[in-house]
Write a structure and sequence with these properties.
Elements (H helix, E strand, L loop, with lengths): L3 E6 L3 H12 L5 E2 L8 E6 L4 H16 L3 E6 H12 L5 E3 L7 H5 L5 E3 L20 E7 L10 H5 L3 E2 L2 H13 L4 E6 L13 H8 L7 E4 L9 H4 L10 E3 L7 H6 L6 H12 L4 E8 L6 H11 L6 E6 L18 H25 L4 E9 L2 E5 L5 E5 L8 E4 L3 E2 L4 E4 L8
Parallel strand pairs: 1-2, 1-3, 3-4, 4-5, 5-6, 7-9, 9-10, 11-12, 12-13, 16-19
Antiparallel strand pairs: 7-8, 14-15, 14-17, 15-16, 18-19
Length: about 425
């Protein structure tokens, strides 16, 4: 009997893509979706924060106690792989550039440390996603930014893009395989094509013309990278009416401390322009970064209230080893103050989202993703959750819903298909 291998994925959408690609190369083992059945676990790790490292270490420790062989890949392989291998917590370390060799390393009889390099581009593509209604497409790797708090460029490398024709071919195959919604992902997708004389906007213009694609969603964008070619696609029906644009802060002084490339005044103009096109807008925001004194926080909060934000991924600064921010000692923010600031931002955006949904009472285009006890869930074109009560099986279907109730946290609909509808 073949040994069974389980893939455990931590972190971002890029890791979800990478895990599916890794699975393609497994030949001599049986892939299981039940970790209790596995003799080997491949951990595709995230290392964006010290907390992410701690969570992965805890998981690895649990697996080791159960006598399971653990192989570490992903971003944590670069930052923590050597340490964990020396501590005999894991059996081997597989760098991201060695994905196509995973079958060989699963067969290894002795421990290994094969980090590879940080200038690779995956040669193969993923055209099937088990248990997913949408498909992920990785368009680039790495990041050329040098934000003071971020370790990712050192574990993912410099920005490099997948060849356009390969991406278009992948999306065509995905559409033929029945995926009508795709999500573009990467380390810093706004940098797509810059070194090759093209742009993300130009790529999207071509992807949107592919037959069978109903919706294209995007991962996080940097405001400084949104150009005219991108703004030109905002009126297209296939682009999701929600963009996630990473501000990280709304104080000009703090943006300079964080070594960001954007500027608050320009960011606000950009957000207002995109919102005027009917888009919902989300962002990332770090509170409690060193230097965020009362004066800077007040400036940030005053600016923040002017942004038309409907979604937010806000989190408290956590010093990341081997970053500039971790060495900063002036104007440190206490945990209680940081938490208070975090909750204030979340409350503002939650109210904005509720008001947005009440004012934009339009027909909702839903791809139903999950269901439990007869209640289905999906996300509309504004990336707002909707719960749908139905006695029919509507899983993985596209629905156009005109009648729904705007509730405080999400929208709700009782769905019944007419008898003459297919």
């Amino acid at each position: 009997m073949k040994e069974k291998v389980f893939f455990k994925t931590f972190g971002c959408r890029t890791n979800i893509y990478d895990t599916e690609l890794l699975k393609r190369y497994v030949k001599d083992f049986e892939i299981t979706n039940d970790e209790k059945e596995a003799q080997i676990v491949v951990v595709n790790s995230c290392t964006v924060t010290n907390g992410a490292d701690s969570g992965i270490k805890s998981y690895i420790n649990t697996m080791k106690k159960q006598g399971i062989k653990v192989i570490l890949t992903g971003c944590g392989a670069v930052s923590k792989g050597k340490e964990l291998l020396e501590q005999k917590q894991i059996f081997g370390v597989l760098g991201a550039s060695n994905k196509d060799k995973i079958n060989e390393f699963l067969n290894a009889k002795t421990s290994f440390y094969e980090l590879g390099n940080l200038n690779f581009i995956d040669k193969d593509i993923v055209c099937e996603y088990e248990n997913h209604t949408k498909a992920f497409v990785k368009i680039q790797e790495g990041c050329d930014f040098a934000c003071s708090y971020c370790i990712i460029p050192s574990v993912r490398g410099k920005s490099r893009s997948v060849v356009e024709k390969d991406l278009l071919k992948q999306v065509e195959i995905l559409a033929q395989n029945g995926y009508s919604e795709i999500v573009l992902t990467g380390t810093n997708i706004g940098s797509y094509g810059i070194k090759n004389g093209t742009t993300l906007g130009k790529l999207l213009q071509k992807m949107g013309k592919i037959s069978g694609i109903k919706r294209i969603r995007l991962g996080s964008l940097e405001p400084a990278q949104i150009d005219e070619s991108f703004l030109e696609i905002l009126d297209e029906a296939w682009i999701e009416k929600h963009l996630h644009i990473a501000l990280q802060h709304t104080s000009e002084k703090m943006l300079r401390i964080m070594r960001r490339r954007s500027h608050t005044d320009n960011d606000l103009k950009l957000f207002n322009h995109i919102a005027s096109k009917g888009f919902a807008l989300g962002t990332d925001f770090i509170v409690g970064h060193p230097g965020e004194n009362e004066s800077i926080w007040k400036e940030a909060l005053d600016h923040f209230k002017n942004f038309p934000l409907t979604h937010i991924h806000a989190f408290i600064f956590s010093p990341r080893n081997n970053t500039h921010s971790a060495t900063m000692k002036e104007d440190l923010v206490s945990g209680d103050v940081a938490k208070e600031r975090l909750n204030l931002l979340k409350d503002i955006v939650e109210k904005n989202n509720y008001e947005f949904r009440k004012k934009n009472k339009v027909s909702l285009e839903i791809l139903v993703e999950t269901q439990k006890d007869g209640v289905f869930e999906g996300y509309d074109q504004f990336f707002n959750k909707i719960k749908i009560k139905s006695d029919q099986d509507i899983a993985k279907e596209w629905l156009l819903i005109n009648r729904y109730e705007v509730q405080e946290k999400y929208n709700f609909s009782n769905f019944a298909r007419l008898k003459n509808e297919k």
